[in-house]
Design goal:
alpha+beta; Aminopeptidase; Alpha-Beta Plaits; 2 domains; 6-stranded mixed sheet; 5-stranded antiparallel sheet; 9 helices; elongated
Length: about 375
């Protein structure tokens, strides 16, 4: 059998349009309805195509849907994973839930991140099931919830304890094979001061001024030190202070000032290491200014970096079939996080590969290139059959 001949591109595009039309904005964001409706759609797709599936409760009425194809006895296990939730539709300049096809593009919220990849994976499972070829490996397609907020879907899936030999996560990579991604640590720091009337500031301790000293130290010393740490694929780690809040009114010495920090980690760095670096900076500032009092609150988000060896079978198989389909097989890295790092942390060698460009993810005019969706399905089919 010629691999991939059972794929029907127009059927894939129709499924993608259906997925876009379902509002699955993460409920942590304004107007978000959650994944219940889209989970029901994915379940019906599996049922209609005689693919075994499981509904795995995660949080409330937001379940993971896990489809499966049985492989040969003693074979390997492969995981395909794509999330069902999307970013908010607010501020979009196209109708977010009215899929519009113009030439080679389909527009709508989630088209790129990651409903294009999900549709391609669903039809890859269908194509293999329809072929009556029993693949070497058992394959699980995990349509997961909550990737856009706190990764509860993939974490719940991993509680099953499934031992797998490889995983593909369908984030938008323009079909490049991603083997490395940055981790992230986000947390809040609070400077404490003492309130006083602004006419007698010497009676108070200005928390904004104290926090300013930390910001200067981060810009002048810490950020330059990060530039000296260079990962061969991902480049250097980064730091961004995205939020600052302090003071109550202009005629009062502020007794509190907070910042929220986003620190991107490269492989080889640990969250404990980053935390310790900030503790050292604060200790050094306090040695120069005894009134400096800054506390670090527990992290709001923690995610490990991803780095998968090129020697892993999942990398070798996917680069081979990607070259056959697209003519490209370069291994690349990305600065954003995904469910892949959680799978890798559980001991499952993982890569990221999907249709779409990350520049269109969460964008005001989100779209996906349909030829990439078609080629992604072909890559997934060939990987299932050859893994």
């Amino acid at each position: 059998m010629k691999l991939g001949t059972t794929l029907n591109p127009e059927a894939i595009f129709a499924t993608l349009a259906d997925l876009i039309s379902i509002n699955s904005v993460n409920p942590e964001y304004p107007g978000g309805r959650g994944e219940a409706a889209i989970a029901d759609y994915v379940s019906q797709f599996f049922e209609r195509n005689s693919i075994s599936f499981e509904v795995q409760p995660v949080c409330g009425d937001r379940p993971n849907i896990i489809g499966s194809l049985e492989g040969r006895p003693g074979g390997r296990t492969l995981i395909l994973e794509a999330h069902m939730d999307t970013a908010s539709e607010l501020d979009m300049v196209v109708d977010p839930f009215l899929p519009k096809r113009i030439g080679n593009r389909m527009y709508g919220r989630g088209s790129c991140d990651t409903k294009g990849g999900l549709a391609a994976m669903m039809h890859a499972m269908k194509a293999v099931s329809d072929s009556n070829i029993r693949p070497k490996s058992s394959t699980f397609l995990v349509a997961a919830v909550d990737e856009e907020y706190s990764f509860r879907g993939v974490v719940k899936f991993l509680e099953k304890g499934l031992r797998a030999d490889g995983a593909i996560v369908a984030e938008p990579t323009e079909l490049e094979v991603v083997t490395a991604s940055k981790g992230v640590l986000r947390w809040r720091l609070r400077a404490h001061g003492r309130a006083a009337h602004s006419s007698r500031p010497q009676l108070g301790i200005n928390a904004v001024s104290k926090m300013a000293k930390l910001l200067i130290a981060l810009d002048e010393k810490y950020k330059p030190s990060l530039q000296k740490r260079v990962h061969p694929i991902l480049g250097s780690p980064t730091l961004n202070v995205g939020v600052i809040q302090g003071g109550v009114q202009v005629n009062q010495v502020p007794n509190s000032c907070t910042i929220e920090v986003d620190r991107r980690l490269v492989p080889g760095e640990t969250q404990e290491q980053v935390w310790g670096e900030f503790e050292n900076i604060i200790f050094e500032l306090r040695a120069l200014d005894p009134e400096m009092e800054i506390e670090m609150e527990p992290p709001m988000l923690e995610d490990d970096p991803l780095e998968t060896s090129s020697r892993e079978r999942i990398v070798q198989i996917v680069t081979k079939v990607s070259y056959e389909v697209t003519g490209r097989n370069q291994l690349v890295g990305v600065p954003y996080g995904s469910d892949a790092s959680k799978l890798a942390r559980a001991g499952i060698p993982s890569i990221i590969l999907g249709p779409g460009c990350i520049d269109q993810a969460h964008a005001a005019e989100e779209y996906v290139e349909l030829d990439q969706v078609r080629n992604a399905a072909e890559i997934y089919v060939r990987t299932i059959l050859e893994f």
